[in-house]
Design goal:
With 378 residues, this protein is of the alpha+beta class. The chain is built from 10 helices and 8 strands. An 8-stranded antiparallel β-sheet has the order 4-3-2-1-5-6-7-8, covered by helices on one side. Strand 5 and strand 6 form a beta hairpin. Helix 1 crosses helix 5 and helix 1 crosses helix 10.
Length: 378
């Protein structure tokens, strides 16, 4: 049987290994919990004056292409609020670019790479550590480390059912080190379950396709469609508004959430609010050939296999979207607690190391003094 001091040693050294990463993830994750609400506060130009009529969606795309004729358009995001700008995402000279367009008159209100969008920059840190796929893999490894760290910490903390209250007791009448140590243990025991959920869902998001492949060995688990359309010289692409209308006529007249472009813009995916699922970010996704308007594929949230629906729920659980503002507040608190736990754990190690060094120095001094006294006596 593993003794508790061994658990503590494992917990301490694993925590020190990933502590700085956990601080970054905790703080950026806390900010991301309310990203949609914070975005127009951080970038005030996203708030626009409402007018009687909005431009057709194709009019917004045309306005974007006039501003950036060489851009590779990838996504258009439509906010819930009527007085907010539409966000267009693209690649320009191999850089990710975001452009905010007034949906009423088509003029650009904010434009630039992620560095011009503070919350997008923070999101890129949280998701990929600004390092692309390599950073995303590191995030996944960090999530596994947090999962193991939490399990080990919970094993060390567990006082037993009869002494459960003892596990949440903070000793306020002792030294500062004792107060922080007992606080670290009590808070860790209290939030362990939430940290386990956050770590597990984070890991599943990083290796979602690998998990899907594993689930497919047991039962069918659908993937999001990825249709391709070959380039046809001389052919023109249709405006997107008729395609949006076609999607709404067939899958429900719900709000337009996103447009996603692939195959060099020859495929457009229309994302509508889901009307077959209670999942917060559920969508009806319809993929069209922009040359001829044919529907190539669809993916309707709430109508997939159990495995696919489970994987689709992961993001909402990880971000707290599944329960609205209350669960988002929980994830905000979780991020702040993770930051605090990592910081206090590193501080406790530092103070412990400093005390041990002081004791060793004191013992060495005593030993030297004894040797000196002995030498004088002789």
């Amino acid at each position: 049987m593993i003794r508790k001091p061994t658990y503590l040693k494992w917990h301490r050294w694993l925590g020190l290994t990933v502590g700085l990463f956990l601080m970054v993830q905790g703080l950026t994750g806390a900010i991301m919990a309310f990203r949609d609400a914070l975005e127009p506060v951080v970038v005030p130009s996203l708030i626009v004056a409402e007018r009687p009529a909005r431009l057709p969606v194709q009019g917004l795309l045309d306005a974007f292409h006039r501003a950036h004729p060489d851009a590779d358009l990838t996504r258009v995001e439509f906010p819930d609020a009527a007085n907010q700008a539409v966000i267009v995402k693209s690649n320009i000279r191999k850089a990710r670019w975001l452009t905010a367009i007034d949906p009423f008159d088509g003029h650009v209100v904010h434009d630039g790479t992620a560095t011009a969008w503070p919350l997008e920059f923070i999101f890129n840190i949280h998701e990929q550590l600004l390092s692309g796929p390599v950073g995303e893999t590191l995030i996944g490894i960090e999530g596994v480390a947090l999962l193991v760290l939490t399990i080990i910490g919970l094993s060390y903390w567990w006082p037993g059912m009869k002494r459960l209250k003892q596990g949440f007791r903070v000793k306020l009448d002792g030294s500062a080190d004792l107060r922080w140590r007992t606080l670290h243990r009590a808070v860790g025991g209290g939030v362990a379950v939430i940290l386990l959920i956050s770590a597990t869902t984070g890991v599943l998001m990083v290796w979602k396709e690998q998990v899907r492949a594993g689930m497919n060995l047991v039962a069918k688990t659908e993937s999001r469609p990825s249709p391709k359309v070959a380039k046809s010289d001389g052919a023109t692409m249709l405006p997107v508004d008729p395609l949006i209308a076609q999607a709404k006529a067939k899958y429900g007249d719900t709000a337009l959430r996103q447009l996603r472009f692939s195959s060099g813009g020859r495929v457009v995916a229309v994302f509508l609010d889901g009307n077959h699922t209670i999942r917060a970010d559920g969508t009806n996704q319809v993929y069209f050939n922009r040359y001829d308007g044919r529907e190539l594929a669809h993916y309707v949230g709430g109508r997939q296999s159990g495995g696919a629906e489970f994987l689709d729920w992961i993001y909402t659980v990880h971000t707290g979207l599944w329960g609205g503002a209350p669960t988002q507040a929980i994830m905000l608190l979780t991020g702040l607690v993770l930051f605090g736990m990592a910081l206090s754990g590193m501080w406790l190690w530092f103070t412990r190391t400093r005390r041990e060094r002081a004791r060793k120095a004191a013992r060495a001094k005593d030993q030297r003094e004894k040797v000196q006294m002995k030498a004088v006596g002789q």
